[in-house]
Amino acid sequence: MIDLQQDDGLWTVTLNNPGKANALTGSMLEELLRIAEAAQEARALILTGAGRVFSAGADIEEARAGLTTSDLWERLSGTIADLPCLTVAALNGTLAGGANGMVLACDLRIAVPAAKIFYPVMKLGFLPQPSDPKRMAALIGPARTKLILMAGQKITAVEAYEFGLVDRVVDPENLLPTARDLVADRLVADPIVASGIARLCQ
To answer: Cα angle vertex 149, ends 146, 153, to 5°?
Structure first.
């Protein structure tokens, strides 16, 4: 359910369970974490999904069994955020719930026009993972973060772009080509120079 393609320093990770809207199970999170931990050697990483939804968040059955409070979510987002490579989330569709964490941890985010972003944790009676509100607020400010996390609003791709939550909105056929174009310079850059620039941008 998690596909990994490696091509000369570029790692493309695809959530591939479109029949269930790429809902994330514990085993999928563990596999994503293993890939993220191994990606220290990658020069760039693209995270995307198969089908029309990026991810519906936690698998419903496993959420009822306690997955929503697992530390896997926070470990995954923290590992992605700490990667030395350039990371791009290419949202092929709607992003929901806990799947926001790994996307917020990426350096860049692009989305198709039909994508919506929502994170209804308060309505469902859960706290978000600790780093998610901080990363979201760093991108769009506290009020708009509360609009999503507390007011429960679904944000369109255009609104997300206007807020600064995504960096570009692109047609579906151009989603992965755009992501690959964004990482092209990083793939050929001197790793020391690239790491130095990344540190200066923090």
So the answer is: 90
Q: What are phi and psi of 87, to 5 degrees?
A: -115, 135
Residue carrying the six token digits 């600790």: 130
Which residues neighbour 34 within 8 Å (Cβ) at sequence distance 6 or greater? none
Predicted model pTM: 0.96
With beta carbons less than 8 A apart as the criterion, state whether 114 and 157 touch. Answer: yes
Which of 12-16, 103-107, 108-112, 190-194 is predicted least confidently?
190-194
Sign of the alpha-carbon torsion through 115, 155, 89, 28: negative
Domain boundaries, the chain: 2-200
User: Per the CATH hierarchy, to which homologous superfamily does domain 2-200 belong?
Assistant: 2-enoyl-CoA Hydratase; Chain A, domain 1 (3.90.226.10)
> pLDDT tens digits, residue range 110-149?
999 999 999 998 988 888 999 999 999 999 999 999 999 9
> 76: which residues sit within 8 A by CB, 6+ positions away?
29, 32, 33, 36, 101, 102, 105
